[in-house]
Amino acid sequence: MTELRNILGPLRVLEAIHRCGGMGRAAAQLHITPGAVSHQIRRLETELGARVLVKSGRQVEFTETGLELATGAAEAFERLEALVAKAMGGSAQAPIRVKVIPSLAIQWLMPRLAGFYAEHQDIDVEIATVARADDTELINADFVVRRGRGDWRDEHAELLFRDELVLACSPAVAARIHTPADLLGEKLLKSMIAPGSWDSWLQSVGLAPGEHTRMVPMANAALCLQAAAQGLGVAVTQRAYLYGEFATGVLVRPLPHAAVSEDGYWLVCEMAKAHRDPYARFSRWLVATARQDMAQLPSALAPEIFTTRPQTS
């Protein structure tokens, strides 16, 4: 019978392949070569006398045995890490690591975290932001918020909110905008993390993106919204981000149109963590918070609120 100590290293590699979504990513995360990853998997299969991975085109898929081992190893390693931290005088529970784009962190997640801490004082949350919208793999993270349709294989995904792009600007700028064509005379504030947002919105109202030449690039949507509040131009961003700014009147919605796609923003984690504390508690809270927000948005953000413009003499 194979002794556990002989396969601990290969099990760590198998767990990393599952967590990272591939052998190449696992190699990068473990700081070893892809060849070393393959060697460890062959060693594991030899010791077990069973296959844990099979080739599917250019990808690899887990066998039933491999998936059971990978998820079980993840739970075991996590428990060991917690015990080691406790023995060293640290917290018995590592913080939940959440990876998001900056605008979502600043505009939506951070303002709501106080509510989570009020209900769950025993759980810490560590938020990491990414430089690219497509950098949402489950590498060094327990959760990611990912844009798409929720159909990612071997990952658990729950919808937070739909992809709905709306415009936002200061009341003074809104006074000049009565139709979509009026945007052609305004500075459009463009997030470089989501550079296609303006194209999507303009196309949805029948305007060719190339018609507009006054695009002002900024690092992310949160900066675009700050600039818009100062009267520097018009921003386009997710409707879910803007409840606070719209409610206070700092920003208004110059046109009622929203560009809606079939995508959404999803909270994604590994299958093994979906129903296990503390991850399940965080997931339930965040999904419930998002749904409560979106249920309130239709009345709170009715178009007539934002088409009201300041009187000019």
From TrEMBL:
Transcription regulation listed as a keyword: yes
Pfam families: HTH_1, LysR_substrate
Keyword Cytoplasm found: no
Keywords, comma-separated and alphabetical: Activator, DNA-binding, Transcription, Transcription regulation
InterPro entries: LysR-type_TF_proteobact-type, LysR_HTH_N, LysR_subst-bd, WH-like_DNA-bd_sf, WH_DNA-bd_sf
Gene Ontology biological-process entries: DNA-templated transcription
Domain HTH lysR-type: 11-63
Annotated GO MF terms: DNA-binding transcription factor activity; sequence-specific DNA binding
Family of this protein: Belongs to the LysR transcriptional regulatory family.
Name of the protein: LysR family transcriptional regulator
Organism: Xylophilus rhododendri
